[in-house]
Specification:
about 130 residues
Length: about 130
């Protein structure tokens, strides 16, 4: 989870940098590619965490839904996928996709906090 949060923070930094650079028309050519690569990495990390969580919970408890962590995790996965999907659609023809992308990422901050807090309780169940 820590790597996904680090990726989120790096994405926030590069996203702010891209916004400022767009206003001054002085964006490094590599910045957008870096933002996309880290975003793709975050998508993969979140999907990996979802898979590990489901398999681990089923293996340990035999069923899902023992805490609100499942809902928090599914919400984060949905927000990450919405953010990634909207990012690929940002264009001159669809400028509103940028607002959807940024707004989703702001909500994702709350989602990461929620999934982290609920995850702490889940981790406590696994520890002896």
């Amino acid at each position: 989870m820590g790597l996904a949060i680090v990726a989120y923070l790096i994405l926030a930094g590069t996203g702010i940098w891209m916004f400022r650079a767009r206003m001054t028309h002085d964006r490094p050519s590599w910045l957008r590619s870096l933002h996309y690569m880290i975003g793709g990495s975050m998508v993969l990390l979140v999907l990996l965490l979802l898979g590990v969580g489901i398999v681990g919970t089923l293996g340990h408890f035999g069923s899902l839904g023992h805490s609100s962590h499942l809902q928090a995790g599914l919400a984060v996965v949905g927000l990450v996928l919405l953010s990634a999907g909207s990012a690929t659609q940002i264009s001159i023809e669809k400028p509103w996709m940028r607002s959807l992308h940024v707004g989703t990422n702001i909500i994702l901050f709350v989602g990461f906090a929620w999934v982290s807090l609920t995850g702490w309780g889940v981790v406590q169940k696994y520890l002896p």
